[in-house]
Amino acid sequence: MPILSLEGAVVAAFDRADDASRAMDQLRARGYTRIESYSPFPLTSEDGRRRDRWPALAIIVFAAGATGALLGYLVQWYANAYSYPLNIGGRPTHAVAAFIYPSVEALILCAGLATFVGVLVAMRLPRLWRPELEIEQLERSSTDRFWIAVGLGSGGGDLDRTSRELRTLHATRVIHVVAES
Length: 181
What we know:
By secondary structure, the chain is α+β, with helices and mostly antiparallel strands. 45% of the residues lie in helices and 12% in strands.
């Protein structure tokens, strides 16, 4: 889910990782749902933790691979056993062992294409520009600064309330970023 909504987002800078981590925990406890951190390392255990259920991309890739293998097998069966059967050396026209390798190749091809397209869609790429990346000194988040972006409208937060809460959580700088349409 994108952080920047139609109302925009509030981005806050923190000098210390403890303050930023505490602020993220406090904001989640207050009901904010769209929170993103920009930092040199994950601020909370939730940032790097995997979910217990299967992600949607894994299900899509599995389904595409299974469909590719099935279609690969069916195309070979149709061509060799049904449409144009040839009796060569007394071999059966429906040779399962001969159909396995091309079916596996079709599985890998379809699963790979689904992965490629799914990652592009999930990451909303190619996205060449994001308004929150225009903030001055945000590039320092890769070395020594900690930034938190809170999407407005997430958890009932408006601009004034969210800005006030971030200042009380020891943010050194609070900026309102507006989404351009």
